[in-house]
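Human:
Class, as today's exercise, you are to examine the entry below, and be ready to discuss the fold:
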Amino acid sequence: MPDYYPLMVPGAETEDKPLDVYAPYDNSHIATMQTADRGVIEKALTTAYGLYRSRDLWLPPVQRISILEKTAAIISESAENLAVEAAREGGKPLIDSRVEVARAIDGIKICIETLRTQRGEEIPMNLNAASVNRLAFTRHEPIGVVIAVSAFNHPFNLIAHQVVPAVAVGCPAIVKPAKATPISCYNFVKILHEAGLPEEWCQALTTSDREIAIELITDERVGFFSFIGEAKVGWMLRSRLAPGTRCALEHGGVAPVILAEDADLDDALPLLTKGGFYHAGQVCVSVQRIFVHDSIARDFAGRLVENAKKLKIGDPTKPDTEVGPIIRHSDVNRIKEWVDEAVESGAELLCGGNKISDSCYECTVLYNPPKDVKVSTLEIFGPVVCVYSYSDIDDAIAQANALPFAFQAAVFTRNLNTALRAYARLDASAVMINDHTAFRVDWMPFAGLKHSGKGIGGMPYTMKDMQIEKMMVVRSKEL
């Protein structure tokens, strides 16, 4: 029987129709969620803003640290169940969902460490006549109410990335998960409450009406808006934010990888196989475009095909599944249409290219698709990797930079000068040397450029975004 989830907005009642949640793999009905109407949105905002405006109600750092420590402990105790639930609702294989839950625990610890080490600074005074007898320094305060809107592809850890920094710095938070994967979000928020966070400090809700969600995001009481999802949605929402609302947007990339003539293929192939087909390619920095020198391109592509064919596709809750379903059946059809378009336009289909079921698609490798087809110009968000041959590395870099998206990129080479040349010339916020584009640890900066986003992710950087640095200037004859 499907689980039932009420709104996590204290004191609120709704008249809106419920949301049914289905497992992407087999379309089984796994949950029913209450959804927020306008009255619920107003209640949530009034509660959160009231907490922010009442300084005496703010949670001191010692209390926040205690809550986060208990949260990490509870998640550790329930890690396997949380991973299975995330795999079931989101489709990421269990082997990877376990890693996702472990990352969330580590992310909480990073926030605690950041709280213990962040500090303000002294601003120099007594340097001229105007600044004599003065001392100036800064300290941090929460920026205000945080609204977090999340994506489906990491349903547990993305919530951690958006909500834990807010809790850590003392911001009241309202989180709206993706409609496809709200269960992990609600589980996470419940754990925060179990760990001692008052329910009003982190509220969770889903909406059936897009305009109601936009009203929540664009309300003038919002201090910070955190968005992870499609670029066209993120930029539209940013354009409608109230004056003064700060934001961070994390969208997708069309991640480029360059393999130089001297690349170690034995080293590169396992990494690029994982980076390209991990979570069926539904990752914002998933390996999508691989530019390979002419001398090794065919060999590389053939060996990538061998690896792709060995990957086990199926039920994401099974421990031996390596590639799970696509989140929506309509996206399976879209991926097939894009691949068919590329093949009809001249791409060589080396493997895959077919639907396995309504929810699963074969791991696909395309060779030299034209530059203007969708698989070469847009984020596929599916298990499709494109291999392009090149003769001049500067031409490969130019092709990599030709799109209005820029996130993480990679280059494989044994030559330091080649690595440095690619690093200096690639449009990217991070360039991985001899690693795939999806590498990430949660204390490093993580940022989309151009159409791919705004602001910097990573736990310490998100905490900084969610605070203001407030200065005090003291005048005294003793200074």
